[in-house]
Amino acid sequence: MNMVEPMSKQFMIETVDQIKELWTKTYNNAGKPDWSHIIPYYSNDIEFRDAVQCLRGIDNFTAMTERLSARSNDLKMNIVNAVKDGHIIFVEWEMTIIFKNRPSSVIYGSSRLILNEEGKIANQRDYYDLWGDIFDNIPRFNKMYRKFMHRKFG
Q1: Which domain, by its residues, includes 76?
Q2: Strands (E), the chain
Q3: Rg of the chain's alpha carbons, rounded to an integer?
Q4: Burial label, 113 (beta-carbon count in 10 A; 0-12, 13-18, 19+)
Q5: In b/e form, how buried is each residue of 89-107, taking b as 16+ CB within 10 angstroms?
Q6: The CATH number of the domain where 32 resides is what?
Q7: Measured CA angle at 81 (ends 86, 123), to 5 deg
Q8: 146 or 60, which is more confident?
């Protein structure tokens, strides 16, 4: 008799609360941010894209998290909203990041996660205004930047 093994539930994303817990834990540890607990929830062929980069594969994704950790003194993630519909999860977040020798910056954004058949994150697309949110924390420059953006795009 040929029995099919049931799919392991280890490292599967099943609920929005699970995402909230994993993401909040990633950024709120004392000291440097740590992604080691969440990496197993990503597919080996993860496709990731944000305002800065586009990469594929768990090794490239892990290297990206390590670079971010090396550049920052602290990161905190506040999950504002999260919803799941089938294999798609949308997360709205506020990330406070403290770069070395710089004041803290809050970056407001959202992420679309697509789960594969194993319940792992196979695709992540982050949406945020990196420069606008960082420039908002620079006295005097913030007003010039917003005025420029309004004049050119708004």
Answers
A1: 16-153
A2: 42-49, 54-56, 72-85, 88-99, 105-115, 121-128
A3: 18
A4: buried
A5: bebebebebeeeeeeebeb
A6: 3.10.450.50
A7: 45
A8: 60
Q: Distance between CA 94 and CA 6 in Å, rounded?
A: 37
Q: Is residue 7 part of a domain?
A: no
1 pLDDT band, cuts 50/70/90, is very low
Q: Residue range 124-131: average pLDDT? A: 89
19 near 38, Cβ under 8 Å? no
Handedness of CA 123, 93, 69, 126 (dihedral sign): positive
Count structural domains, the chain: 1
The pTM (predicted TM-score) of the whole model is 0.81
Query: Which of the pair, 61 or 96, is modelled with greater confidence?
Result: 61
Residue 51 backbone zone (phi > 0: left; psi -120 to 50: alpha; other: beta): alpha
List, for residues 68-113, the tens digit of each pLDDT value.
887 777 778 899 999 999 999 999 999 887 766 666 778 899 999 9
